[in-house]
Design goal:
- InterPro entries: ATP_grasp_subdomain_1, PEP-util_enz_mobile_dom, PEP_util_AS, PEP_util_C, Phosphohistidine_dom_sf, PPDK_AMP/ATP-bd, Pyruvate_phosphate_dikinase, Pyrv/PenolPyrv_kinase-like_dom.
- It is an enzyme of class 2 (transferase).
- It catalyses: pyruvate + phosphate + ATP = phosphoenolpyruvate + AMP + diphosphate + H(+).
- By secondary structure, this protein is of the alpha/beta class.
- It has 35 helices and 31 strands.
- The strands form six sheets. An eight-stranded mixed sheet has the order 12-22-21-14-15-16-17-13.
- The longest helix has 25 residues.
- The protein is elongated, with a radius of gyration of 33 Å.
- The protein starts with 9 loop residues before the first strand and ends with a helix.
- The relative contact order is 0.07.
């Protein structure tokens, strides 16, 4: 604590301001700001977050804290003309938490500190209201007992219910002073029995214990869970606000309420909030009695209502944002107890941002900072009607947002067949693999009982904009019997189910879906300039237009066919950053690739390649036409080998059964021997990418020729093909040099044969740590880098992304080892460090080196900011994440410009 010896630990409300949130917490900083504005704030002081940190680290408050609190308490007593806990006309205070970031309801508060057996009598005389005094005392014992002494809160509630039942009343306001005196005695007995000590009668002891309780509440399970959910750092600590009490429970001319300067649900201006007569603040939150709309206050207390409206206008103008306000009226006197920038829905965020621009309170740059990609994503996906009746079956990982309804099917063939017949289907599998692609495309959504957010199902679903729930372990999927069981519930094929990719919930039956007008806007089916255009769409349009004007990062799409490419272009894609050619070899073409891989002779291999070449060429012609004039990065074949070979177990069983019947199949025997030879324990780290291209002669050459010939065809048709050939899984420059030399030769041959000048560039995917560490050498042979952050994360961490999320990521998140999955948001310290160093080394070798990223992180809001910071030229993501990436790229540029100007 030595370094804090001279640090101020307590600030009067008159000493702080809203810029001191790190030190005073949000509540303390805003109480100080309102005090500075001359608004009616009850006097008080704030104990800083630094004091809390010391307490949490050492288990004891800083030695000098007691003296500082005493000095500020004495000043408060002098200002109020009364002393804490004195028997006649006592000063009472509240003790409230207040972290830098709002954590509503997660930490502790104690009201009415200073009441005792003696001072309650003085309070009753001063207020000329005996019932009020004893009501305040029972509240203190109840809150103090639960919060500070750890007594089960249910015991107090049961005693209160018993008192109401004895009086034959239903609400606590019908208990009179005599009833409350008896209740206080009961509460004190509960404390003595459960806490092993008497309720403290010394006011200063109450205060000190309450302050420590608020410090301790920073690390309660609920607070830690909330911080993990909201990504709030765990080392910030909470401030403690000690505020002189004002009372809303003094009678019908008193009350308490919550107000918003705009509707936090819609963003519309108006009078929004709740009010409760003759109550203290916790009554509104607890729902003990029904509140009335804030607008009713105008009839109940016109003077206070008019003053509150003026204060709300003052605060919104001052904070230039929606404000959330707590207030109390004490016998006709309005007091402000809290204000903060209010939480709001995604739709309200966009509407409010543009409204404030129109009112001249903020500029477009600030409006862009008031919204984020996560909010935009919420607006883009369809959602279930929240008011619908539902039957919950289970819950998995929310892998790809949206709401999907359809008949349960358990294989891709059925999904495609039923879909073609006009049925909406949900494909249900234990886990998906590339062979399920047709079924995934045909389905409204995908549900798996295994896997995580970066499993095959999740990644592909996000790429297609399909709703997906993964890892729903409580669902027992039996694909052979075509059914799924949950406990005693059996869902047969054809039964309707609904899945919510935003929450991970799975429902039986059809839940009504509400469509998204924002997606209709991005797809060009709704025009923001139309008179009848949705107000929300207009707000999104305006903010997106500004983001596109200011962003430096370009945004491309991960797309493997012309249909996805066209959709991506409608969503604002500026090219394709990743075309995965292995996705072109699924379905009917898989057997061709299988023959190529297993070919025994050069003739067999050449025949397989000759069969594939025209198909690949046609694929690329369609792709270049869809993306004419924009760059298209084509990744050469990069499948884990097992995805294109027969299943070794099934093949072994087939051969064994044939041998038992003495019905030998020479082809199956030969196939099994070949599969055994190529079988890998860890296919993701095996014969794939550039290694496959070097081991199978002619494979990459065929693909390069197809790309070059397709580009020549497109150019001959007066198009503007801009193909970029990407070599996957390079770990050393020699691999790239060999492939590039062959590719350059083939491109030259095509140019000579067609009389066309093809400006094709050749680069590589940086997805191995060695590639990142030797980027300076690799850049000598590469014209561009594209960071494959999925595999880079996998290889840096030593994680199998298909397994770890389901096996131990939950425990890592709960223990705080991860704040968020490194497959979801880039690990800046580890993976990000390699990206940064590779960028610097690559550009040192080749200053004009084009740099992008095409992993899942390319569409993650937080990761986009990192990629802007390290100087990449573009990010690439699935088509449905393009608007999110565009928005975040704009926010990153605006934020960077703001930092530079400061």
């Amino acid at each position: 604590m030595s370094e804090n010896k001279n640090q101020k630990l307590v600030y009067d409300f008159t000493e702080g301001n809203r810029d001191l949130k790190d030190l005073l917490g949000g509540k303390g900083a805003n109480l100080a700001e309102m005090t500075n504005l001359g608004l009616p704030v009850p006097p008080g002081f704030t104990i800083t977050t630094e004091a809390c940190k010391v307490y949490l680290e050492s288990g004891a408050a800083p030695a000098e804290l007691r003296d500082e609190v005493s000095a500020h308490l004495a000043a408060l007593e002098a200002k109020m003309g009364k002393k804490l806990g004195q028997s006649d006309d006592p000063l009472l205070v509240s003790v409230r938490s207040g972290a830098k970031f709002s954590m509503p309801g997660m930490m502790d508060t104690v009201l009415n500190i200073g009441l005792s057996d003696a001072s309650v009598v003085g309070l009753a005389a001063q207020a000329d209201n005996e019932r009020f005094a004893w009501d305040s005392y029972r509240r203190l014992i109840q809150m103090f007992g639960k919060t500070v002494l750890g007594v089960d809160g249910e015991l107090f509630e049961e005693a209160l219910d018993a008192a109401k039942e004895a009086k034959k009343v239903t609400v606590d306001t019908d208990l009179d002073a005599a009833d409350l005196k008896k209740l206080v005695k009961v509460f004190k007995k509960i404390v003595a029995k459960e806490a092993g000590r008497e309720f403290p009668q010394d006011a200063r002891e109450q205060l000190d214990l309450a302050v420590e309780a608020v410090f301790n509440s920073w690390n309660t399970d609920r607070a830690k869970l909330y911080r993990r959910q909201e990504r709030i750092p765990g080392d910030l600590g909470t401030a403690v606000n000690v505020c002189s009490m004002v009372f809303g429970n003094l009678g019908p001319d008193s009350g308490t309420g919550v107000a918003f300067t705009r509707d936090p649900a819609s963003g519309h201006q108006g009078v929004y909030g709740d009010y409760l007569q003759n109550a203290q603040g916790e009554d509104v939150v607890a729902g003990i009695r029904n509140t009335v709309p804030l607008s009713d206050l105008e009839q109940l207390d016109k003077k206070s209502y008019d003053q509150l409206m003026q204060i709300m206008e003052t605060l919104e103008t001052h904070y230039k944002d929606l404000c959330d306000i707590e207030f109390t009226i004490e016998r006709g006197q309005l007091w402000m107890l809290q204000t903060r920038v209010g939480k709001r829905t995604a739709g309200a965020a966009f509407r409010i941002a543009t409204q404030l621009v129109d009112q001249g309170l903020i500029d477009e740059a600030e409006a862009l900072q008031r919204v984020n990609g996560a909010q935009l994503a919420q607006l883009m996906f369809p959602r279930f009607d929240e008011n619908a009746k539902t039957e919950l079956l289970g819950r998995g990982i929310a892998a790809s947002p949206g709401a999907a309804v359809g008949k349960a099917v358990f294989d891709s063939y059925t999904a495609v067949k039923w879909s073609r017949s006009g049925e909406k289907v949900i494909l249900i599998r234990r886990e998906t693999n590339p062979d399920d692609l047709d079924g995934m495309i045909a389905s409204e959504g995908i549900l798996t009982s295994r896997g995580g957010k970066t499993s095959h199902a999740a990644v592909v679903a996000r790429g297609m904009g399909k709703t997906c729930v993964c890892g729903a372990e409580e669902l027992d999927v039996d694909t052979k019997r075509r059914r799924m069981t949950v406990g005693d519930q059996v869902i047969e094929e054809g039964d309707v189910v609904s899945i919510d990719g935003s929450t991970g919930k799975v429902y039986l039956g059809e839940v009504p879906v509400v469509p998204s007008p924002v997606v209709e806007y991005f797809e060009g089916r709704m025009h923001a300039g139309a008179d009848d255009a949705d107000e929300l769409v207009q707000a999104v349009h305006r903010i997106m237009a500004y983001a596109d004007r200011v962003r430096r990062l370009r945004v491309r799409a991960n797309a493997d066919n012309a249909e996805d490419a066209l959709r991506a272009r409608r969503f604002g894609a500026q090219g394709i950053g990743l075309c995965r050619t292995e996705h072109m070899f699924l379905g009917e073409r898989r057997e061709m690739v299988e023959r190529l891989i297993l070919a025994d002779t050069e003739g067999e291999r050449e025949a397989a390649l000759a069969e594939l070449l025209p198909l690949q060429k046609k694929d690329f012609i369609e792709l270049f036409e869809a993306m004419d004039g924009l760059p298209v990065t084509v990744r050469l074949l990069d499948p884990p080998l097992h995805e294109f070979l027969p299943d070794i177990t099934e093949l072994s069983v087939r051969v064994a059964l044939a041998e038992a019947r003495k019905d030998h199949n020479e082809n199956d025997l030969r196939l099994l021997q070949a599969v055994h030879k190529l079988h890998e324990q860890n296919p993701m780290l095996g014969l794939r990418g550039v290694r496959l291209g070097l081991v199978i002669p002619g494979l990459f050459a065929m693909q390069v020729r197809a790309i070059a010939e397709a580009a020549a065809v497109r150019k001959d048709a007066k198009g503007d093909p801009r193909a970029e050939i990407m070599i996957p899984l390079v770990g050393t420059v020699q691999e790239l040099e060999i492939v590039r030399e062959e590719a350059d030769t083939i491109i030259a041959e095509v140019e000579a044969a067609t009389g066309t000048s093809l400006k094709l560039t050749i680069g590589t995917m940086i997805e191995l740590p060695r590639a990142a560490l030797t980027a300076a050498q690799i850049a000598e042979a590469a014209q561009f880098f594209s960071f494959g952050t999925n595999d880079l994360t996998q290889t840096v961490w030593g994680f199998s992304r298909d397994d770890v999320e389901a096996s131990f990521f939950t425990a890592y998140l709960e223990k705080g080892i991860f704040g968020v999955s490194p497959f979801e948001t880039i690990d800046k310290d580890g993976v990000g460090s390699l990206v940064r160093s590779a960028v610097e080394a690559g550009r040192a070798t080749r200053p004009d080196l084009k740099l992008g990223v095409c992993g899942e992180h390319g569409g993650d809001p937080e990761s986009v900011h990192f990629f802007h910071e390290v100087g990449l030229d573009y990010v690439s993501c699935s088509p449905f994440r393009i608007p999110v990436a565009r928005l975040e790229a704009g926010r990153a540029a605006a934020e960077s410009a703001g930092s530079d100007s400061r």
